[in-house]
Amino acid sequence: KQISKERKRVHDQGITVECLTGVALNPGHAELMYQFYLSTIKKKEAIPYLTVDFFRTIFKSMADQLIFVKLNNLVGGNYILDLVAVFFAGYAGYILVAVAVLLWFLKKDLVVRRTILAAMASAVAARFIVVEIIRFFYDRPRPFEALDIIQLIRHSPGHSFPSGHAAFYFALSA
Prior knowledge:
mainly alpha
């Protein structure tokens, strides 16, 4: 009941609420969050332990991980959803390649065959050349190495950025 009254009061003042996550967050938002924190500390007459640099660091380095953790909390909650996630992460790429090879043999049109060949070549190049070059210069650990998460599929430690799956599928679709 109290929350409804507060929301109405905010609405009546013409204030809008916007939810921002990931790359939409910028250093200005960190500064604003720090000011909110200080305001709360002052009202509660507490000691401010957190610094503005803490908020800058969280906004800069953890925004995507916060989203990831939220998604990871779904693991184990729905058996069908877990199966779908495992299927797409582990097997969908092989099925797409098989479909492309099948189309190659079924379609005799030269334009279709060139398109399939270009899509497969770009997907392989993106996954095994471009991704590996970026990973050589930018080492970012896999989420299970840095966070306490539940894994649906076991994976060896190593680079996680950029995603080989994402690069492969994106290049295949483009």
